[in-house]
Structures are given as structure tokens and as C-alpha cells.
Amino acid sequence: MSSYQQSQAGSPDVVVSVLRIDRETMERLPLTDEQAAVATAAVGAVFAAAGVTPNLVATAEWEVEGWDIAGFPEPGPGEWFDILMVKGEAHDAADQALAAKWPELQGQWTELQLYAPAEPA
Asked: Higher-confidence residue: 66 or 104?
């Protein structure tokens, strides 16, 4: 599986992987290596253009998820929501890149997964 990974000084790497989801059945479908490379390149381009890293996006997800428990911070969510909007744009870019190259994938969408890579054994 192809993935987009960028280091951020002082932080562990976060990997972005892309899964394909059938909109009707909500089934997760595998991507070929070529499809994964195209989708993750599109995600990486959006992140780079916005000046965010996968680590920053993962941190924004963590912060916003915590608000479900603790409530909104003062003075407000601001930049974390802005960063999550970039993740939404990355979703769209991956969808569009896949559909442009493989028209049969039109009507399916992607799921971006952010995770820390496993430590080598």
C-alpha cells in the first residue's frame, strides 16, 4: 500500500493511507498500488500547498475529538477546524485524482487514515 509520510521536527512520523469506500454499500475496497500512489500523491500535494503536515492534521483531529468530552475551548476552535478543512480538501483531491484516471471509480470516495508507523521489530 502506498502512503504519504512527512516528518515534523520533534514528532514521530504520521502516515496517511487512503482507502476506497463504496458509497452504496459502505464497504472498504482495496486500492491497487498504482491507485494508492495516485491518491496519496494528491493528498500530499494538498497538505504541502496548505503548509500542513500529517502530524499537524493528526493533532488537529485529536484536539477536536477531545472537545466531544471537554467542550469547546475559549476563545474558540479556530485553527484546528481550519486544519481539518484541509483534510477535507485532501479527501476531495484523492477522489478526483482517482476518478480522473479510473472513471469506474466515480461515485466512490476515499477515507484517509492517519497513524504512527509500527516500530521495527
From this structure: 104
